[in-house]
Amino acid sequence: MIKVVNVVASGSLGLELDLVTIEEELSDIVDYDPEMYPGAYIHLGESYPLVTIYRTGKYIITGADSKAEADSTRDTLLNLLSDHKILPAADDDWFAIQNYVCMGDIRRELDLDALVIDLGLEISEYEPEQFPGIVYRPPNHNCVLLIFRSGKVIITGGKDIDSSKNAFSTLYEHINNLFRNDSLD
DNA sequence: TAACTAGCTTCTTATATAACAATGCATG
DNA sequence: CATGCATTGTTATATAAGAAGCTAGTTA
User: Fold this and answer.
1) Radius of gyration of chain A (CA)
2) Strand C contacts in A 134-153 (CB under 7 A)
3) What span, in angstroms and rounded, lies between the C-alpha atoms of A105 and A99?
4) Exposed/middle/buried for A137, CB within 10 Å: 0-12, 13-18, 19+?
5) HEC string for A93-107
6) A20-75 pLDDT tens trace
7) Is the CB atom of residue A11 positioned under 7 angstroms from any atom of strand C?
8) What is the model's pTM?
9) Strand B closer than 7 Å to the CB of A146?
10) How many whole angstroms separate alpha carbon A112 and alpha carbon A124?
């Protein structure tokens, strides 16, 4: 099936933050350079997801490999902030998964020149001199798939794993049908 | 001229190509 | 010791999504 390789989530504490103070109190794990970027990066640990937190109290988590890891990263963040007397507003606090990046494998060597035409040139593009994979935007799916000659597929843009799974399954079955039909020729 | 909108910045992650830089090793 | 080739390493290309803030361009 497919494997989740990255999860992006966002949330809000529902209150304004003083990023300068946060950077001072947590200087060993916080990187804040407003000249470069308005968000402050919080490194909760090596190989842990990255938290980027903003003046407005909103934050994003990137680099988790499951919903569970994104959730636990949020818990760690809230605990850390509560240690510094920052508590989320009870009514304006929210958190949601925004994007799943998944990897699938068709387990076949693919002819991308032929596949891009079969998939339809209006919903897929293949410019090997620009990028080695097909960019496929299937209708009825909210995901974008990157398809490579090796058969590896990246499914990105899904807000839940099921929609990513469905998008991959549809492509997987479609390609296998192509091979089945070829064998009848 | 002010207000608005769009597009870019930062980061993460897999995938796979080319183009480049830098280094290692061998031969002249 | 210098030059050539090979290997390794890094960067770019493209994708999605969130966030705040900046700039550029358009419109009233």
Assistant:
1) 21
2) 135, 137, 142, 144, 146
3) 20
4) middle
5) CEEEEEEEEEEEECC
6) 999 999 999 999 999 999 999 999 988 799 999 999 999 999 999 999 999 999 99
7) no
8) 0.92
9) yes
10) 11
